[in-house]
Amino acid sequence: MMIARFTCRWPLLGVLFCLAGPALTQAADDPLADARAEFSAALAAVDAGKIDGSDSERLRAYPLHPYLVAARLRLRLARLNAVDDSGTDDAVAAFLAAGGDAPVTRELRRGWLNSLAGRGQWAVYLANLPAGLAAGDTGLRCQQFAARIALNQTEGLAAPVIEQWQAADKAQPACDAAFDWARAQQLLTPALIEARARRVARNGYGALAKVIATPLAAEVRARINQWAALIDEPQKAVDALIADSAKPVDDEALLDGWQRYARKDPEAAAARFAALRDARKLDDAAVSPYARALALGLAWSRKPAALDWFARTLPADVDVITAEWWARAALWSGDWPQVTRAIALLPEASRGEQRWRYWSARAAGAQGDINAKAQLATLAGEDGWYPALAAAQAGSRYAPHPQPLAADDAVIARLDALPGFIRARELFRVAQRTPAAVEFALAYEALDSPARLQAVILPMRWGWYEQGVATASRQKIYTDYVTLYPRPYDGPVRAGAALSGLPPTLIYGLLRQESLYRADAVSSANAYGLTQMLIETAARTARKWARPVPNRDALFDPATNVPLGAAHLRDLVDRFAGQIPVAIAGYNAGPNAAARWLPASPLPADIWIENIPFNETRNYVQRVLWHALVFAWLESSGKPQPVEPWLAPVAQPAVVASEAGGS
Fold first, then answer.
1. For residue 84, what pLDDT band results from cuts at 50, 70 and 90?
2. Could you tell me the pTM of the whole model?
3. Fewest 10 Å CB contacts: which of 77, 280, 299, 500?
């Protein structure tokens, strides 16, 4: 079995970055604990603005010491005021030369390049910009352009500058010098300007498209402005084009505006369909995409009229999304023959997915096909949401089909002693997850296939669960449930269950989906902790349940976060009269959205969930319920679990109170 080998690249720093593997193997008494604590204190000092430090021999020998050196150098760069500081630049250059492309150098390298650009040190910039580094980084690429312009190295520069200008969907200050140069060289021709304005409009940036089109001829500019109007105010713009049938408009722009209109208010758009068709003289082929847009808008709003508009869509305009939503609309309306017809329009690969095999069997059974039961039984022999539903349709309990990894402790110990994994582990333990993931990925890439299997287990043993799950997913390993479904927060989860009356397995399913066990998780919407609570939701829930009102930091404490998340889910369960799938949808998308999605008449839960209009929320509900089932199966030592409740009808509660906010 091949294990990655590491060659030390740090002789110039005089630090022991490459320690012998066995010396770093995690022992029961954690031999790196003292050095780790010293490193954390030194890194905190840098964060507090202290550059210099007297490092002990133990700290200098610690595997992460170069990260401390890099942090100090970044702080020195941030404090540079003079145009030239050869001492700092020389120190950074020496560090980078010693480290090459090791992960610890990457953030510092970019910081140094930005500093050089800010100080106009263009010759040094170009001399230290590695080949290819700027290719995927807009800021570095535009700085490279600026450096070449400043140094009069412009041969061959026109094409890449024009390419960057054409790709810009928003202001890019780093590119201003290059774009100004291109204008001065008269490289931005009317044809290029028009092409960029149209591409920006195609991406939905109407206001920017208008700005770009400013220098164009009046007729061309008017077409771009018309497209911008269709983006920004589709109803008003469509009405104007109906009223003035002679007003010019590009076909692409008109369809784009119509699609926006149909998404926002499909019923109002449907009322204008005939008028638009007649005003614009659209034949059956030309009008079919407009019918498709209405069908999708109405299906996303769960309106029965969607089926009529799907039927008016020509086969050439039925793509995968259209066929899927046609099937969902037919499910919502209980039109099983049309479900079958819609699924038949999917490509063969899509029809082979568990989702559509399940619904195909359901539709067949509803139409009296004797083969439907066998189809469901076959599907129930697999793992996942739809196989469990298939078992429920047969009235059977369901058990997953585990395929556990065989842990090889000797290989895992050798992996644990590799320098790259040591650094990844230590970075994880000092809460530096982003560089930890980079180090882990680099070490993982050097492994052969058998060792990569053991690399799934390694971070799980460290308690770095999201990395273990990600490594398993990378290898399409999903059914080692003992490894991939740990229960590290039993105390807070049991406390949450006691407070809310919800099953611990459901709470575990929630936090696994929300944060993948990351107690320090922060979402883009500023939701915090294991159950991803918003501050305002946590405060409201705490007051209702007579708990201390938490601040942001408290939500990173599982003992606070998990009971509050469970209580919030309980509130949603109560609001929706015990309908757990609806409550889970409300946890993800907000209770008001979940309330809007409720049917006028009771529907089987599988049909209701399938018609959740947000892909994220639909998948979220399915995964939380699946995770809860797996946790229940594990807790019962492998006994098949009841899944009939997954089919319980979803209906409007007797009273749905108005409640703002979400999880």
1. low
2. 0.90
3. 280
